[in-house]
């Protein structure tokens, strides 16, 4: 049981790191849009998903219309929709404010998850949550200083996108765990593959619509390697690490851990996102940013110890 617990903890933290890479996307793809990046990323991820299905024995029993429909819907909520809102938030709200708002995810998800599952008495849950909340307050305080606002384009657009990303991720986490619980025999790899393929299909369907709306820059800037190399390299790299790796490890965590703990571990995404944003903008963290990240990490460590201690009782 300890082994399964720690595998789940590692998987959740890796998923948080993988998802945090979304925050750097707008700053590494040049003149191409996040829609171009999403197209490359999700199509590559879908190809990987097809490969997983091809090499998995006895996979036909899992490829029912109901499973395809639910997996594609989850891909729409938690990957395509979440990716577009979080990268849009990073563009308009900057590299610190966007991940700071997304730090609300573990608070909301832990409260909902513990209410639904009753996995931990509330008195044991409060201290880790208070640390996380205090860390978020510090990070947000730093974000709204003059230094943090330097890279903000529009709070009126960035903040609503950040809130939308929070709603989508909480919705996805709860719906995905419910779907997995209803399918105890479904291998995590196969379920991940269905979601990846669903996300790729959604992006391909959306491409002609988005191109007509001028959301994609590929038709204008060109598909050639000479101009689109950064887009392809980052798209493939993050498809493998952030999408494939993130989907698979989050499904492992969802199977191994209570929602209330997995939710608090995903707060690591905020810490990773802030650090990545600071690296992209080549500046050191302020005292408040550094303190906020440190307290967020302390909250994660305490949550792991509390849940592990309760399991050992």
UniProtKB/TrEMBL annotation:
The keyword Coiled coil does not apply. The lineage of its organism: Bacteria, Pseudomonadati, Pseudomonadota, Alphaproteobacteria, Hyphomicrobiales. Coiled coil: none annotated. This is EamA/RhaT family transporter. The chain crosses the membrane at residues 7-29, 35-54, 66-84, 90-112, 124-143, 155-176, 188-211, 231-250, 257-280, 286-307. The keyword Ligase does not apply. Keywords: Membrane, Transmembrane, Transmembrane helix. It comes from the Bacteria.
